[in-house]
Structures are given as structure tokens and as C-alpha cells.
Amino acid sequence: MTGTRRWLIALVVAAALLTLSGDVIPRSVLGSMKKLDVNAAESVRTSPTTAHALDVRAWQHRGPHDCAELRCYQTTAEVEENTEIGVLPAENKKEALIQARTTLGQARWEDSVRVTRHSSFPVLEPNGSLKMEGTLAGVLTGGEAGELSREGLHYRFPATTEQKSYPYFDPWSLRSTPIDYVDKTQHFFLFHQDVAPVPLGPDSPTLLHAEPLSGPAASFYSAEELATLGLRGTEPTTLTPFYAASRTLTVEPASGTIVNKREHRVVVLAASEEEARQAAAEEPAGRVLYRADTSWDEATIATHTDSANRVVDTQQRMAVVAWVSKALRFLVILPAIALIVRARRARRAR
User: Fold this and answer.
1) Is the dihedral of CA 326, 328, 331, 332 positive or negative?
2) Which of 268, 153, 246, 240 lies closest to 196 in space, CA to CA?
3) Domain ranges, residue 223
4) pLDDT above 70: percentage of residues in the chain
């Protein structure tokens, strides 16, 4: 074997190896990182916060000389929301099963949903279930949703998250509604969602339920509100509980990891959906059954941010490896071409 032939073989091998390191390996690594990891677990905790509620039981059992207005029975309690999330393999390797257990005050609920590993969206067929036990604010009780066919994201966003709206699942209302891209801060995306008031009657298709409250109108409305609505204070009135929420999510777009969540959830009493929209915006003291603002604590934010940053760092390293490998491959191909041309000229000269 001539020296030229040996050099040519060495250069071809080098070019093949550089193609492997600059294209095949980065593509494989980045492709696997876009899929939801199975056999993984994480915890989400919110900072302690003060929840405001109305003690409906005390109001219902008031004495003849006690305050008849529901707003006289406001209470507060410190609460924090804790969620344990596990990602398990499904029968289909392209899917994963997410199971989560959440506690908030005296309420506990369990969530199970099958998602596609590539996009984090739920599969198209009935894909999960939700069950709640205990009570919230003493009057909000849970139930079992059974099989659900939900459409929205919840625990994470797709890798390479875009600046657009996504359907997002709200577990209390059991509805998926758009969560909208609103801003960018550093290398994170901010998304915001408003959940319009949803009735929580005993037969409502929601996770939370509460009985309507009945009494004289003056028990629920202030004198100014009675005048605006044209109601007499002694007029019998029945109000339905409505749930509404707003939330802002901070998402690292390369990984789809949610690194922070801030939520405002409120349950108000109203005679109609139109009145519920106004009450959810104004939150009158006498008709707010439950209200709380929650946000992830610093440890949770740090853990999720570190996890997202590891994905970003790996992607950046793979990009550098790919660029260097392609540059070196170009430098290897040039002398290989020169050797081939020289060998052809030598054959012609004979």
C-alpha cells in the first residue's frame, strides 16, 4: 500500500468520524432530550400564604343577635400547596404516564394523565383521571372525575416552546383553555391564563363542588349593591358558588420546563354568570368563599431552573461540538481532494 493511499484512507476515516461527532451524535442527543424522561420524579412546593375564606357553617348557625351578614364571618389560614410528580413508562414507548398527588390545606387530589413524550400533550383518547378528597375552606368538597379526555398541557411545555398560545388544563374546573405568551425575560418565556368563572354546583362537571347558599339579600350584598341591583334587603336570595383563576407561568423554552408558577384562585357567590364575572374581578368581601395567591418557593424554582439549564448547557455544548467537527471535516476533505487529484495526475503522466 502506497503512502498516498494510506493517507487517503486515514483522511476518509477522519471525515467519517467527524461526521459522526458533528452530526449523528448531536442529533441523537438533542432528539432524546426533547422527549419526556420516564422513571423520573420531582416535587413542587409553594411558599406559605394566607388563604381567605368565609365560615359558612358559623353563619348558618348564628344566633338571633349575631351579625346576619356573611362578610362578618371572614377567616384566614396559612396554607401551602405541595405536589409530588412521577413520570412512568407507558405500554407505548412514545407515551408516558404522569401521576401527581397534591395537598392544599385539608384538600388532597390525585391526578393521572397519559401524554406523548415528544410534545407533553395528552394522548387523543381518554387519557387520565382526577380524584379529590377532603374539603377546602370548609365548604368546597371534591369528587372523582373518572376518565377524562383533556387536551391541554399542565406539568410541562413542549421542548422548543414557541411564542404562541397553548391549551392549558385547569384541574379545578376540568377545562382546557388558552394560556397566552405575553413576554420574555432573560431566556424565559412568560405565559398567562385567565379562567372565566365556572359554576361549582353539586352537579357541575368540575372537581370542586359547593352547595348554593340561601338567605335574605342583605346577608350577601352591601347597601350600595342592593341599591344597584334593585333588591330589598329582606328579599330571599339564592347564590351559586363560581370558581375563577388567573395564573402566570415562567417557562424555559428550550426544554419546556416550567420554572415558576404564580396563581390567584377565587370562589365567589353570584346569582348569574354575568354577576360572577363582576364578583371575580371585584371580589366583594361578603361573597368570596375562598381566595388565595400561591407561588412556587425558592427551592422549587432553583431546582427546576437548574434542570432546565442543564438541558440548555448540553444543547450549547452539542452546538459547539457540531460546529468544530464540521470545520475540521472541511479541513480534512481539502487534503483528501488534493491527494485524489494528485494521484490521478500521476496515473496520467505514466
Assistant:
1) negative
2) 246
3) 30-311
4) 79
Q: What is the pLDDT of residues 68-86, one digit of tens each?
A: 999 999 999 999 999 999 9
Closest by alpha carbon to 227, among 217, 237, 212?
Answer: 217
d(CA 317, CA 169): 34
Asked if residue 322 belongs to a domain, the reply is: no
CA-to-CA distance for 94 and 118, rounded, in angstroms? 7
Residue 175's Cα: distance from chain center in Å? 13
Number of H helices, E strands in the chain: 6, 17
Note whether residue 245 is domain-resident. yes
- Count structural domains, the chain: 1
Provide the grid cell at 72.
Answer: 362578618
Q: In Å, how far are 34, 87, 122, 190 from 113, measured between CA atoms?
A: 19, 10, 7, 24
What is the pLDDT of the chain when averaged over all its residues? 85
55 vs 311, residue with greater confidence? 55
Domain contains 326: no
CB contact set of 168 (below 8 Å; sequence gap of 6+): 152, 153, 154, 176, 177, 178, 179, 191, 193
Rounded CA separation 168/176 (Å)? 5
In a domain, 181, yes or no: yes
3-class DSSP state for residue 317? helix
Entry pTM: 0.83
- Residue whose C-alpha cell reads 330589598 in the numeric block: 232
Widest Cα–Cα separation across the chain:
121
